[in-house]
Amino acid sequence: MISMRNDFRIGDQEYRFFKKRDILAYLIFFAVIIFVIFSFFGNNTGDKITVLIGGKKTYEFDKNTKGVYALKNDANDFLMNLVIEENGIYIRDSACPLKICEKHGYLSRNFDAIVCVPQKVIIRFSENEKIVEDLKYDIITK
Amino acid sequence: MPRSSKDDIMILNRKTWIYILTLAIVLVIFVFFFVFNRPEPYIVKDEIILGTYVRVVVGSDKNPNAIMDSMIREMKRIEKKFSSTITDSIISKINQNGKNITEIDQETRFVIERSLAIADITNGAFDPAMGRIIKLWGFDRISEPDFTPFVPSDGQILQALSHCGYKNIEISKEGIYLKNDVQLDLGAIAKGYAIDRAVQVAKEMDSSCTGYVDAGGDIGIIGPKFGGAKWVVAVKNPRGESSTDFVRYVQIDQGAIVTSGDYERYFEAGGRRYHHIFDPATGKPAEGTISSTIIAQTAMDADALSTAAFVLGPRYSVQIMPSLGGQGFFMDTAEKEYLTDGWSYFDIDEK
Questions:
Q1: Is A46 at the interface with chain B, CB within 8 A?
Q2: Nearest residue on chain A to B261, alpha-carbon basis
Q3: Interchain pair A10, B13: CB under 8 A
Q4: N or C: which end of chain B has fewer CB within 10 A?
């Protein structure tokens, strides 16, 4: 039977399993575990949106920071507005004559990307940098 | 004062506890760094090359970053060499020289000869000498910011069409020349060739390399997923409401899969949609097909065959594509689906 008592006796002498310094050691141990867990899950890119302009990572947005963001290139030319709403992420007011990026609609996860070829803009979830096993599909042909 | 043997037992116990705790901490750190925080099996890079969105995914034990860079460099080299809009490309040079012979290297010869072979077996449905029509409609500049939609008149189309046709391309030991003022445009095959070359470069650098190259939905497989599994490729619904609306799922671990559709490169004018796949018989965007997907051994063949199938129409393509080396899935304008007999080998839902 397991005893929950911290003290025990041998003959007339009383002893304790844990002293104050032992508790300190335990606290350090748990702090390390918590740090490790937070370090690992803190890198979760699931809520981040990456914008590449001319092949260079130019912007990164948090999915939860709602608003309309003007995307500009290195020459400070306006390219398009990125809209982050409760319903999703999409493009409007593109300076490109084709406006195919506007017709893309909401950006979804799983290897989707909003692309404007003439302006060399790629918008996608940051997590798409990883290849994972448990998706229904890996690649899209279109 | 000498310690009792009971004290010695306690000291030993406390030392053991601290020893165990230290060991546990080391173990946790070890697990974090070597199990959870291990490098991703694949590295991914997105670029815009060949007028499209290119995604390269590489898994290798031998310097995957160097492999990735070499692949992208190779694709950019091919873009520069075979583009009809870059003035110092070999294609521009051939077009400028026209009826005068242009000397060509082995690689150019290979790509042009393969184009001509596919043009022959598809009875001209795929035609690498449609440069005049492509330029007339402005699709050679569709990837440029200054692209202006333009719908030519029937007269202009007929005039341009009279200077088209692959039979006007003459290739010999000395080189190549163009008759009847035709213009070469390898846009419907060069992308596939670039994918094949990128895959080849990856395999030359590491024969056990895996991953894929996706150039705007034209996909070449380097090797199986995680070294053993098949990649699942979703075929986009050409009339789907969202970007993740799919009609088919296929599994492949080698070769290539390419789709030609009327919904990726197009412009709208006067309430009509004009896409980039031209019928060499009319000089206008091909009608009757909305999506044509081909699985073949090489991306180059899949690229050319998917264009040819789009022009030929689903009813005919479903019969002839297997004999040309491609398994296909096609949709007509009524959204009716057509599958070649061998398609079910790849299709998840047909198995």
A1: no
A2: A142
A3: no
A4: N
Which amino acid is it at B129? Answer: A
pLDDT digits (tens, 9 = 90+) for B129-160: 999 999 999 988 887 777 887 899 999 999 99
Residues β-bridged to residue A125: A49
Percent of chain B with pLDDT over 70: 92
How far off is chain B from A82, nearest CA to CA, in Å? 17
Tokens 């004559």 belong to A97
State the nearest Cα–Cα gap between A117 and chain B, in angstroms: 6
Q: What is the ipTM of this complex?
A: 0.84
- pLDDT digits over B98-136, tens only? 999 999 999 999 999 999 999 999 999 999 999 999 999
pLDDT category of residue A42 using cuts at 50, 70 and 90: low
Residue B301 CA to residue B257 CA, distance in Å, equals: 10
Cβ(B229)–Cβ(B208) under 8 Å?
no
A77 contact B CB<8A: no
Torsion angles phi and psi, residue A63, rounded to 5: -60, -25
Average pLDDT, chain A: 80
Q: Are B28 and A137 in contact (CB < 8 Å)?
A: no
Please, is B199 exposed, middle or buried when counting C-beta atoms within 10 Å of its C-beta (0-12, 13-18, 19+)?
Answer: buried
Identity at A16, one-letter amino acid code:
R
B37–A contact, CB cutoff 8 A: yes
Nearest CB among B6, B57, B261 relative to A10 is that of B6
Query: At CA A84, angle to CA A82 and CA A88, rounded to 5?
Result: 115
- Asked if B236's CB is within 8 angstroms of A139's CB, the reply is no
Nearest CA to B210 out of A142, A50, A138, A127 is that of A138
Chain mean position to CA B220:
6
Indicate if the pLDDT at residue B297 is higher than 90. yes
- Please tell me the distance from the alpha carbon of residue A49 to that of residue A89, in angstroms, as a whole number: 9
pLDDT in tens, B217-228: 999 999 999 888
At B50, give phi and psi (nearest 5°). 55, 35
CB-closest option in A22, A32, A130 to B28: A32
